Amino acid sequence: MTHILKDKRVIFIDILRILSIIAVIILHYTADLLTRTNDFNTTSWWISNFFNSISRFAVPVFFMISGSMILRVEVTSYRHFYVKKVLPLIISLVSWSFIYAIYKQYFILKSNMGIFDFLLHFAYGLVSDRNYIHLWFLYAIIAIYITVPLISKLVKACSEKDLRYYLILWFMISVVYKLISDIVFRITSEYISVPIANIPLFMGYLGYFILGYYLYNYSISMKAKNLFYNLGMISLFVTPVATYFASLYNGTLDEMFYGNYSITTFFMAIGAFIFFKEKETALSEQINYKVKKIISSISKASFSIYLIHLLVEILVSRRLEIDANLLQTAFNLIFNVGIIFGISYITVKILNLNKYITQVLFGGKS
């Protein structure tokens, strides 16, 4: 994209980061009520289900943003890349795993575990991703970043047609095959297994990573854009309704359409990315400098907000009530998400005033 200069922030990427981190907070906040009750006909459940559903684009978009930004980089030194890009993520993972492990063990579980036993427990949790629920993202992104020196060369050597072939095959294996498998399981209680479909390079979050790079660097036809817009919008409404009927059938919350490889999640994510990419020029021209600085500041803090927001949620937010009415539920959801986001952002900016704390907690990311 020649209109984006090297030293210029990409406004649509910044906006997508902000929307995605807010969506992640919504996901985690509404998850409490959705998993706390099996009464799917209450107003509070439906509002939580709706907001949770329309926020599902967030995690795939984070991977797409990472791919669009990091795969542009020319990796000339493995050592330099790992020190600058991978090590900060590892530092953040260790630090926040330790913080959440302490909080979980001594404040939530109110354990009397000794220091030595705690350290063993923490080390096991760190290796096996069991210290806190949202830290899985760091394990996934670190794993992908380790491959970047090779993957970046691969995608640059590929033609647009080659990348389309990869993405279509990834979509069929990671999204369509999973959809069919999930449907068959819910009908027969048996998962189908097609060994020929187990192709490692065409499975997992790497597909979203490369999809972000592709959409960032190549233009797609107007027909394709309209198709993805429409499928994305349809998915916004299909996801909560499909989740309701699947949960009703199952008797408990069914997260088939909540998954990061759900077909509705895929279309919401790709639709959002394309939509905001198309608005890049208009956004750059219409948003004034001061607003851009605010957007940039929040965007830069999004990674740190992701790390800290669940701790803030535990400490300051109030749970949604199962029997609350429409107005109460909507107000509490918006208020609590706003409080969690605001306190997380302010706390991150305060912590970032000290470069040593920034280094230890956020790997040097501001």
TrEMBL record:
<feature type="transmembrane region" description="Helical">
    <location>
        <begin position="86"/>
        <end position="103"/>
    </location>
</feature>
<keyword id="KW-0812">Transmembrane</keyword>
<keyword id="KW-1003">Cell membrane</keyword>
<feature type="transmembrane region" description="Helical">
    <location>
        <begin position="329"/>
        <end position="348"/>
    </location>
</feature>
<feature type="transmembrane region" description="Helical">
    <location>
        <begin position="43"/>
        <end position="65"/>
    </location>
</feature>
<feature type="transmembrane region" description="Helical">
    <location>
        <begin position="258"/>
        <end position="276"/>
    </location>
</feature>
<comment type="similarity">
    <text>Belongs to the acyltransferase 3 family.</text>
</comment>
<dbReference type="GO" id="GO:0016413">
    <property type="term" value="F:O-acetyltransferase activity"/>
</dbReference>
<feature type="transmembrane region" description="Helical">
    <location>
        <begin position="163"/>
        <end position="180"/>
    </location>
</feature>
<feature type="transmembrane region" description="Helical">
    <location>
        <begin position="297"/>
        <end position="317"/>
    </location>
</feature>
<feature type="transmembrane region" description="Helical">
    <location>
        <begin position="132"/>
        <end position="151"/>
    </location>
</feature>
<feature type="transmembrane region" description="Helical">
    <location>
        <begin position="227"/>
        <end position="246"/>
    </location>
</feature>
<dbReference type="Pfam" id="PF01757">
    <property type="entry name" value="Acyl_transf_3"/>
</dbReference>
<feature type="transmembrane region" description="Helical">
    <location>
        <begin position="192"/>
        <end position="215"/>
    </location>
</feature>
<dbReference type="GO" id="GO:0009246">
    <property type="term" value="P:enterobacterial common antigen biosynthetic process"/>
</dbReference>
<keyword id="KW-1133">Transmembrane helix</keyword>
<dbReference type="InterPro" id="IPR002656">
    <property type="entry name" value="Acyl_transf_3_dom"/>
</dbReference>
<dbReference type="GO" id="GO:0005886">
    <property type="term" value="C:plasma membrane"/>
</dbReference>
<keyword id="KW-0472">Membrane</keyword>
<protein>
    <submittedName>
        <fullName>Membrane protein</fullName>
    </submittedName>
</protein>
<feature type="domain" description="Acyltransferase 3">
    <location>
        <begin position="11"/>
        <end position="343"/>
    </location>
</feature>
<feature type="transmembrane region" description="Helical">
    <location>
        <begin position="12"/>
        <end position="31"/>
    </location>
</feature>
